[in-house]
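stuck on this one:
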Amino acid sequence: MSEPKIERLRRRERELEAEVARLRGGGTSPQAGHYEAVFDSAVDFAIITSDRDGRVTSWNPGAERILGWSAAEMLGLPTGTFFTPEDRAVGQPASEMRRAAEAGRASDERWHLRKDGSRLWASGELMPLRGRGGSDLGFLKILRDRTESTAREGETRRVRDELQVVTDVLPVLISFIDQLSQLQSCSPDRLGGRSRCFDRVIMS
């Protein structure tokens, strides 16, 4: 790694450390303690921060539970690690950061990747992190697993589609039952009478 790049990384690390120290208030701020408690206890949400290059700088217990990687494993890795190969191939992680930087946030709802290679459907928000003077510190991503609810929605759509098929063929089915009942009501005593019954059913 070149010296200029190492120096840039060190400078960004110092900026992030300064921002963390400010939020924590030297360990005495109740507000900072509240933020830290929220970060650690929000196990239903993956809360992830990254630097300006998209490399993970913090990874909460919710991210560990939802995505499978521990904080120790993910720190320093690109956030694209938990994007699908097809999304990485088209530059989706960088595109999302660009949209967040330009618009103040970027929403997404797509497949993501777990450590074990399985996929989850998640909705997320990516927002830029700003320092005290408005300096760009990186990004904050909040992600929620919606795999089960999406599967339930898919099942609901499937049942609804099946009901629609039944509804569509119902008039034909009713007509068939009506014709069948007319045939059953015909007296088979005389061939001519039976013939007239068939004629009546066919013409109806």
About this structure: The longest helix spans residues 147-185.
